[in-house]
Write a structure and sequence with these properties.
Distance between the termini: 58 Å
Order of helices and strands: EEEHEHEHEHEEEEEHEHH
Number of domains: 1
Helix content: 25-40%
Strand order of the largest sheet: 7-11-6-1-4-5-12
Number of strands: 12
Largest sheet: 7 strands, parallel
Shape: globular
Number of helices: 7
CATH topology: Rossmann fold
CATH superfamily: HUPs
Low-confidence stretches: none
Radius of gyration: 22 Å
Length: 260
């Protein structure tokens, strides 16, 4: 079984994330970044499926030069090969344009039996790209999988909601997005880290995919950030000494702030 896993390079949540002053887009170059945590579950699930049978896992990303780090992590985990789509014209693309580039890249990779994604990216958290990608590829989509089983020509998932769990079956090929409940992603072993250095990584541009540059980028985006302001530093809190009336003072503070 051949599986394509779409992964994303995102700013580290622990770093000081910000926007570019020039065009108000997310700064993905001047900050530390990494493979989106939610995408690690997608990579792990693909590896489990292939290890239980046969086939290969191709990881695919769209982004600047630094996005190669996301591919490196996935290859160290055990993915067999990687594709990096990078082109200056992609900068500022929204979800619609991103799904277009991903779809054309998947088509160029070949005809995978399964396309797996994370449930969302940790920087955008919109969860819309999987559905858009499935539509562009003409594949059935089974999203938010907490459990995934491939049996012959079908894929079955369990989707856990607040009030109930659903079992959904789709014919292959299909697109599946997985949640962080589906598995426990492995850590790259020393052997995996060394092996990743020899695995093939292809770099494609928009021209390689036959995508018109006017369809992607900030100018083609449906929405734009007009302005941004850095969050002000936290002010020092008020220290109240309890002299027997601490409870009263706390109640008065909560009442003044309309918390009670």
């Amino acid at each position: 079984m051949n599986i394509v896993v779409c992964v994303k390079y995102v700013p580290d949540a622990q770093s000081d994330r910000t926007f570019n002053d020039s065009d108000n887009t997310t700064d993905r170059v001047g900050v530390d970044g990494l493979l989106s945590e939610l995408d690690e579950y997608a990579v792990e699930e693909a590896l489990k499926i292939v290890e239980a049978g046969e086939g290969e896992v191709t990881v695919l990303t769209v982004g600047p030069d630094q996005a190669a780090d996301a591919l490196k992590k996935a290859l160290q985990m055990g993915a067999h090969k990687a594709v990096h789509v990078k082109d200056d014209a992609i900068h500022g693309s929204d979800s619609v344009a991103t799904s277009l580039v991903l779809a054309e890249a998947v088509k160029k990779i070949g005809s995978p039996d399964l396309v797996i994604t994370g449930m969302a990216s940790t920087d955008g958290t919109m969860s819309v790209v999987p559905a858009m990608l499935a539509e562009r590829l003409g594949l059935p989509q089974v999203t938010f999988a907490s459990e995934l089983t491939v049996d012959g020509s079908t894929v079955t998932i369990r989707r856990d909601g607040d009030a109930a769990s659903e079992t959904i079956v789709a014919s292959l090929p299909a697109l599946v997005s997985v949640t962080d409940q589906i598995n426990e992603p492995r850590y790259p072993s020393f052997k995996g880290i060394m092996a990743a250095k020899k695995k093939p990584v292809e770099e494609w541009s928009l021209a390689d995919l036959g995508v018109d540059a006017s369809l992607v980028g900030l100018e083609a985006a449906w929405t734009k950030v007009e302005s941004f302001t850095k969050r002000p530093p936290r002010e020092q809190g008020q220290i109240v000494t309890d002299e027997g009336d601490g409870g009263t003072k706390l109640a008065e503070f909560l009442s003044a702030q309309k918390f009670v």
